[in-house]
Amino acid sequence: MGSCFSSDVQAKYAAGGALDNKQDDAKREAAEAAALLTGSAAYSSWVELQISCSNLKNADAFSRSDPMAVLYEKGPNQQWREVGRTEVISNNLFPSFVTKFRLMYNFERVQEVRVVVVDIDAGQTPETVNPTICDQLGAAELLLSEVMTAKGRSHTVRLQPGTTTSTVTITAEEMSAAREVLTIQLAAGSLKNVDTFSKSDPFLEISKATEDGRWLPVYKTETIDNNLNPVWKPITVSGTQLNNGDPYRPLKIRIYDYNDSGKHTLLAEADCSAVKLKEMADSNGTNTLQLVRNGTFGGTLAVRSFSVEVRPTFLDYVRSGIELNFMVAVDFTGSNGDPRDVGSLHYLNPAGGYTPYEEAIMGVGRVLEAYDSDKVFQCVGFGGTRQGMGVQHCFPMGQQHDGSCHGVQGIMQAYRQALAEWSLSGPTLFTPVIRHATTLASRPAPHIKYLVLLILTDGAIMDMQTTVDAIVEASGQPMSILIVGIGNAAELRNMEVLDSDGKKLQGTGGRTAERDIVQFVRFAEHRNDGVALATELLSELPGQFLQYTRTRNIPLPAPVPTAPPGARA
Fold first, then answer.
1. Residue ranges of the alpha helices (H) in 396-492?
2. Alpha-carbon separation of residue 192 from 218, 267, 268, 287, 291 (angstroms)
3. Orientation angle between helical segments 530-538 and 356-368, nearest 10 degrees
4. What is the rounded CA–CA span in Å between residue 120 and residue 125?
5. pLDDT tens, residue by residue, 61-88
6. Cα gap 124→147, rounded to integer Å
7. pLDDT one-digit tens code per residue, 281-302
């Protein structure tokens, strides 16, 4: 058998004047709620953006331009929505705007932003004027990740059309509340029993108030069976996740009786805030909150403990220069089907389009690409054979002997080249690929590097126990493993075992994984939607990275200082 290289990671108007729509807002709200409940929002951060410009076009005849900048963000429906607009600075071609914009940064999503700079004339109201009727000084589109990974978190791009030297600079700063991690233990008493043959099975849900008066769920506890006086395990949430960093923001606590049908019965509820919860904890149990059920007494809520810890965030490490190294491993086993057959998972349609493997590579690669400075990724295949060779379970794809490719497009080219040079074979073995990735991740580096291995597979693996052992060994290295199951559901059941959410994998001899490093997603659930696939697949990666730095006591390196945008008259 072959081994890897045996020789040796809104406002009113939208741009263009189109009004934003409610469907876009609904999608954003649904995505935010899902992220909060699944835990990925624990690693999201509120960031403040500030804009400055240089060498703007002069649109006025007898004075200089009076610029205003408008910031847009692309929504889930690919429509631009206005985030806000700056103040107007009179007679200035080098404006440094004071206005700051607040956006939620999500690592697992590609967040596109657009800056439009316009000249405001006399008689136009800056707060309400449609930017499209103003004199255009230039516009630029970029990714939020480009700003967050830039040195000093200050990213400059050219304005189009503008002048040949017109630029806009966006500077970002993470809000301090993102570093606060709250640990709270809650308990309830005298809950109502709504079950006939046993006691209620309560779980607790916390929601925060949004600016428009909605309640957005942010956390759910475990369910405690047959208990009217439950004490839940301590919950750990970031300040961003719990209350957007505002300790006075209203919170609603609801306690439900769990039902297998999913139609849970509300037992009681109460309103509070983080400040109130802290006061209750400081009272040593004498200060409790009365719960309400249908307007009457529904029980009591107590806070057993409440603590706040300041921890470095994922963005802190990004600012300090970490790199995510991306490695792709593609399944070349025969169960994919002959690539010449239209039913094959590797079929290249002459009329155009992408294979499922390419869709997954593009969705995940586009996110990770921004976090690797040289954008050189490694591409390997497994389960393939070629003339004069037996089956190879980890072979380089593309023209380079080590499988290195430049950028996502380089991976795509290497994949197509490998399809032309390699024949599908088998069986499906993960162990050689994981061990090769572990070797790469364990190499000493002058600064923090973290390897992200993406395994794309169509079926059941034949080396389950040695794969588990390889993952247990890899859990101590700076790496994570993402698995996309492209085959049918029945053959992918073992992938869920490897994605051991809630418990640590145990290998041969009882050795336990140091941490959970695997995330598995079924391709069929996100077919033709690479953005959604990447969002789910990458949601746990920041947490896995931070867990590695904590278990290894890796200090936060000194960040590159942020250079404030310079003003010029």
1. 407-421, 431-441, 464-474
2. 24, 6, 8, 21, 11
3. 60
4. 8
5. 778 999 999 999 998 788 999 999 999 9
6. 31
7. 999 878 999 999 999 999 999 9
